[in-house]
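Section 3.1: Structural characterization of target chains.
Under the original work plan, the team committed to producing a structural model for every single-chain target entering the pipeline before any wet-lab resources were allocated. The record below documents one such target. The sequence was received from the expression subgroup and is listed exactly as submitted; it comprises 714 residues.
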Amino acid sequence: GQKQFSVEGLDMTVPMLDEVIQLSAHHGAKEVVIGMAHRGRLNVLAHNLGRPYDTIFAEFEGASTLEAVTTIPQGGTGDVKYHHGAQGSYQLPDGDAVMVRLESNPSHLEFVDPVVLGAARAAQTTRNGPHAQQDTNAAVPVLLHGDAAFPGQGVVAETLNLQALDGYKVGGTVHLIQNNQVGFTTDPEDDRSTQWASDMAKGFDVPIIHVNADEVEACISAVRLAFAFRQEFGHDVLIDLIGYRRYGHNEADEPAYTQPEMASRIKSHPRVRDLFAKRLVERSVVTQREVDDIEQAIWAELTKQHQQLKERIAAAHEVEQQTGQYQLDRTPSPVVKTAVSAHRLEALNGDLLRIPDGFSVNAKLAKQLERRRDALGADGGIDWAHAEALAFASLLTEGTPIRFSGQDTQRGTFSQRHMVLHDARTGREFCPMQNLPGALAPMELHNSPLSEVACLGFEYGYSQEAPDALVLWEAQFGDFANGAQVIIDQFIISGLAKWGQTTRLTLLLPHGYEGAGPEHSSARLERFLQLAAEGNVRVANLTTPAQYFHLLRRQARIAKQRPLVIMTPKSLLRLPQATNRIQHLAESQFYPVLGEPRVDVDKVTRLVLCTGKIYYDLVGHGQREGNDGVAVGRVELLYPFPEGPILELVNTYPNLKEVVWVQEEPRNMGARAHMSPRLMQILPQELSFGYIGRPERASPGEGYPAAHVQEQNR
């Protein structure tokens, strides 16, 4: 009576995957990375990855007996049995073995597609030494699709578009559509506008092989043809495996309610194993007695394992269960030293400003870059892009690989980064960061296609497979990250609780209200804070380049991997007040909370707490000057909630009477809903607490600059 989404009608999925795995290993693969939804997933786990039958039975028994479950991560909440990933050692006929990895997948059917590609790319890439080397034979990605989901979900098209791009190519993905000719209860004429489920792939020059799921030899031939094409051309290839669904959408479902004619025909249609057995008997390969003996032996073994499991569960019930076995590890990681000596920073700075002979830098840009030489002097002036470059360079020379991608990332959306230079006369490219003397690890740097969901999924997959690397993804504007919300919600945020998976993937999301309109203001800080729980993520909104420098280095080196979300600035990129001197990088560290400098603490009665760019609006406003009763504090790390540093700041002011949370986002957005209850819980009772900001709004910001200025001043 439990859901299991059987493979029957598309049984050939399993031997076809066997064939892909064996062909991959024959051509040098060390790993095969598979992504698929729920149809037949338990069969793939058992037969292609070698997961023991009794552990799968345990998942069914676990519906009523938690002691049976083996896949709940330490301290997590777990996931349904047909979402879990796994990896197993596949034994080859010659005695060797190849690693097979099935990626965890949520109910959002196709969103695992780019995750698989990213994991495959990471497994193909050697990150030792200054330059990354890719061997597309080292890992082969395989994607299984549903016939309704393939044309129906946009992430498929976004993923197909990655296949020939330098930053994302994996030497060709083998796609297989598990075509059971119905989408839950929806007929093909209602779920697509094309004749074939596979037609969308034509737009990407992907060859399509249609094959009957009842024809065993043809199915294996289709795999061999597809794999040969992949090896010859390094290009995606697709097999449309056309079969049927013997039962309903799941085994508790009744298909005759909605497809009575099809259900009737399927009921009388012989199974593929019977068709093939009959053919083998006719060819005298086996006898009917041997066929019957094989079936009975397997059934007996399954029955025995199931019974033994139930006996173990019954015995476990009689033993007192230990409490606290599902507690998450909330212990802090050891403190990471992020400061880099001034001498080394000066050397790295010189290396980053060294241009090859004969290379002509754009005259306007050359002046900007030359300022970075002076910025390390006594007068300071290290801005955000400069601090970022020094952080990356220091990590590369310490042996940390970096992969950095996003929309217009090489130059930077706001023309601030210029990590890749273009010769003003010839257009020739040169990246100082990728030619750094003394680099012990490589930097991959890619402008992404105009995609959020597939690209962020790719980077998540890459970071899963490459825990040694600092992997960063940057949105053109932070608002655009909501185009990748499924990857954020279902993978990045909840993967730890569901599957025990986490990464140090870092999201850079430009955020701040400068009057640029509702789609260029907010990276939806409130969403990330609402998703933060059980130490699953880090969320920061910084106010100085030095803080950015230290946080990037901390994220790369900290023992406990967790995703990091940084609300990066826009107007602060060039704000003179938002710059640092070399000692802030060489002799300091990351601070979760910052107080306002040059304030007479004895006179302060009101503490204004804020986060990010609004700090400069407040301290730079005319009404701030001469107002000794107010101090403005900054919460730089919003999650994990920095209770200790906040209380330390509060205790700095002996005559404090009031604490106010101030933000430029509307009341129902931003950090207010996250910060207010936590502040009220920890602040001394004698202090009053209030909120200042925009009222509740349906849209994040004003659409007209004049309206923005008026509201910001208010």
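Confidence is low (pLDDT under 50) at residues 319-327.
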